[in-house]
TrEMBL record:
Domain PatA-like N-terminal: 4-169
Originating species: Coleofasciculus chthonoplastes PCC 7420
Taxonomic placement: Bacteria, Bacillati, Cyanobacteriota, Cyanophyceae, Coleofasciculales
InterPro entries: PatA-like_N
Protein name listed in UniProt: PatA-like N-terminal domain-containing protein
Pfam families to which the protein is assigned, alphabetical: DUF4388
Length: 287
């Protein structure tokens, strides 16, 4: 199965949500606008296993993780020029390279976490800033174990973390929820997500019949900050936009606890009804 689309129509957080909801496995390719879709240059390759991100690279030469290891000089007894060939030969084809090296006592847990941060989490911030481009998801593409640390992160949690560290929201500006809309809870257990202080505060106003504009005023936060927080709550499936039938003069009994908290930002508009509509298409057929 192959799914293609434009990032102008479906944002990366939406695509991630679909992949996790459908428990998909395969290769997600992102091509920024203006690049040749048949070329590997300037592309992002993200390997997914049952809705979990397990690896990421900018090239399909399968040498990205080995290059990171070589840069850190953690395998000093192996010549850098022959490192890829030797590891490719030694590592079992069914086992992630990182897990193999840890089992051999060559890498530590902390080193694996650093590799995953550098290989997957940091590049995701760049991917979230793509203003235009195309995506392609190829189902059941064999996972390159030599590009895998053995660690993984759910697509929605990766979205939350990526949006929190987003330097610029220009690419997602048109996806932010309307200031005059409210937030409705989708009944998802919020304890599954490590919400920070501001996210938690905005979350408490779901189903309160208050617009984002009023929430921002009540919490004494910039409206853009509240919109970005609301966006990420929507992106990870905790809430959806809610139309308000009347002007929200409502003042809740909850006292504001925003004083002394750091300002934050982030989130993208994911329509829950849209996800439900496409879910049947994304769930793979039994093989």
């Amino acid at each position: 199965m192959c799914i293609t689309g434009s990032l102008a129509d479906f944002s990366l957080p939406q695509v991630f949500c679909l992949l996790e909801t459908g428990h998909q496995s395969g290769l997600l390719t992102l091509h920024p606008e203006g690049t040749d879709h048949t070329s590997s240059n300037q592309a992002y390759y993200i390997w997914v296993y049952r809705g979990q991100l397990v690896g990421m690279a900018n090239l399909l030469d399968h040498q990205g993780l080995v290059s990171l290891i070589a840069q850190q000089r953690w395998l000093k007894d192996i010549c850098p020029s022959s490192l890829f060939a030797k590891l490719n030969r030694l590592c079992p084809k069914h086992q992630p390279l990182g897990s193999y090296l840890k089992k051999q006592g060559i890498l530590t847990n902390q080193q694996l976490k650093w590799l995953f941060q550098s290989q997957v989490l940091q590049p995701l911030c760049d991917a979230f800033q793509l203003k235009a481009g195309h995506f392609r998801f190829d189902h059941n593409v064999p996972l390159p174990t030599i590009e895998m640390t053995g660690l993984s992160i759910s697509a929605t949690l990766a979205t939350l973390m990526g949006l929190r560290n987003l330097p610029s929201w220009d690419a997602l500006a048109n996806h932010l929820p309307d200031p005059d809309m409210g937030l409705a809870s989708l009944g998802t257990d919020q304890s599954e997500f490590p919400l920070n202080d501001l996210e938690w505060q905005v979350w408490t106003y779901t189903d309160c019949m208050m617009s984002l504009k009023s929430i921002a005023q009540y919490l004494q936060l910039p409206l853009k900050t509240v919109q970005q927080i609301a966006f990420r709550l929507i992106a990870i499936g905790l809430a959806e936009e809610m139309s308000l039938a009347v002007e929200d003069d409502y003042t809740p009994a909850i006292e504001s606890q925003s004083s002394g908290l750091h300002q934050d930002s982030y989130r993208e508009v994911v329509s829950y009804s849209f996800l439900q509509h496409l879910l049947g298409f994304l769930v793979p057929k039994a093989s």
